[in-house]
Amino acid sequence: PAGMDFSQRLERIYQQMQMLLTQYRPQAMAVEKLYFQNNQKTAIDVAQARGVILLAAQLQGVETFEYTPLQVKSSVVGYGQAVKKQVQEMTRILLHLDAVPKPDDTADALAIAICHAHSSGSLMNRLKQYQ
């Protein structure tokens, strides 16, 4: 929110993560590995926020898995150089949604979840063996 300094934002991220992890008790969490081409300031801020998120998961005993953008694109679209629009549309199709989820961060998070579901260590992948 506007008016918060960065330290307060990190605290809020941590508190919200603790609340979500306590409420939903996930067995695992998938996150995208950081990759930045340009803005170093943004990269540092995102890295700090990501660290708070990973710490929250660690303290709750939630196993985390990391995937590169290339892995996510390959898993969702079948092509590592796919553009964002292709990933979003394939996410919509795979999840049988009427529209691409908004905002873009939501679609990105779902694509990462699909990537994790496709990964060899995923429980969903192991369940497919029995169907």
Account of the protein in words:
With 131 residues, the chain is mainly α. It is 61% helix and 8% strand. Strands 1-2 form a two-stranded parallel ribbon. Strand 1, helix 2 and strand 2 form a beta-alpha-beta unit. Helix 4 crosses helix 5. The termini are far apart.
Strand order of the largest sheet: 1-2
- Helix amount: 55-70%
pLDDT < 50 runs, ≥5 residues: none
CA-based gyration radius: 16 Å
State the distance separating the first and last CA atoms: 46 Å
Layout of helices and strands:
Elements: H1 6-24, E1 28-32, H2 40-59, E2 63-67, H3 69-77, H4 84-94, H5 104-118, H6 123-128
Parallel strand pairs: 1-2
What is shown here, in short?
By secondary structure, the protein is mainly alpha-helical. It has helices spanning 6-24, 40-59, 69-77, 84-94, 104-118, 123-128; strands spanning 28-32, 63-67.
Features:
two-stranded parallel ribbon, 131 residues, 6 helices, single chain
